[in-house]
Each structure stands twice: as C-alpha cells, then as structure tokens.
Automatic annotation (TrEMBL):
The keyword Translocase does not apply. The keyword DNA-binding applies. SUPFAM superfamilies: Winged helix' DNA-binding domain. This is GntR family transcriptional regulator. PANTHER family: GNTR-FAMILY TRANSCRIPTIONAL REGULATOR (PTHR38445:SF10), HTH-TYPE TRANSCRIPTIONAL REPRESSOR YTRA (PTHR38445). Keywords: DNA-binding, Transcription, Transcription regulation.
Length: 115
C-alpha cells in the first residue's frame, strides 16, 4: 500500500513518483502512460487525483494528450526532466545537504560516490 505525505497534495506526490519513473525511462519516450484507471487502481487513488497528476506532468511539458488515445511521453521529456530536477537539486537540496555535511565534519574523501 502506498503512503502519502500530508504536507503536499497527493496529486503532486503522484506526479513526482511518475516523474521518477520517467527519469528511469519508464515508460520510454513516445510510449503511452498507463491509463488513469490503471494508475488509480495501482495507487488506490481517486481517478480525479490521478488526472490532476497527469495534467501537472503535461503542464511541465513531459506528456502530451492524444485525443482518444491517452497521455504519451513527449520526445525529449527525460532530458527536460533531468534539467528541471538538476536545477531544483542545486537550488533547494544541495545547500541543505552541504550545510549538513559541514555540521557533521564530512568531506569529499569520506563520501563513497560509487555506493
């Protein structure tokens, strides 16, 4: 069973999970996303919530709607998503992580990048 964080709307959390799949190449560019019904069943969510998540990904330029066929992963979506996520990481997550590393006295020589 999926767990959801109360600090962020569920549709946004689902959009983030689906975006993670897109980063991993699932589904590949040009291929259809699972249907709203399939996603709603898998995540045990209201189809309206799933629709909002897919719409958010569409607004981010990652998906396109094909009338009568569903939502498809746009060409270049993975690269676009990587760029957006890198920017978000560098602006939001890295400064916090860097502060925490300094607090703990950890330097590059103590971090295993290959693990």
């Amino acid at each position: 069973m999926q767990t959801w964080d109360n600090r962020q709307p569920i549709y946004r959390q689902l959009a983030d999970r689906l975006a993670g799949g897109l980063l991993d190449g699932s589904p590949p560019e040009g291929e259809p996303m699972p249907s709203v019904r399939a996603l709603a069943s898998h995540y045990v969510l209201n189809p309206l919530t799933v629709g909002r998540a897919l719409q958010a990904l569409s607004e981010d330029g990652l998906l396109e709607s094909r009338r009568g066929l569903g939502m498809f992963v746009r060409s270049g979506a993975r690269q676009r998503l990587k760029e957006l996520e890198r920017q978000r990481f560098l602006e939001l997550e890295w400064p916090q992580l860097r502060r925490r590393l300094r607090q703990l006295g950890l330097g590059p020589e103590q971090l295993d990048w290959e693990a």
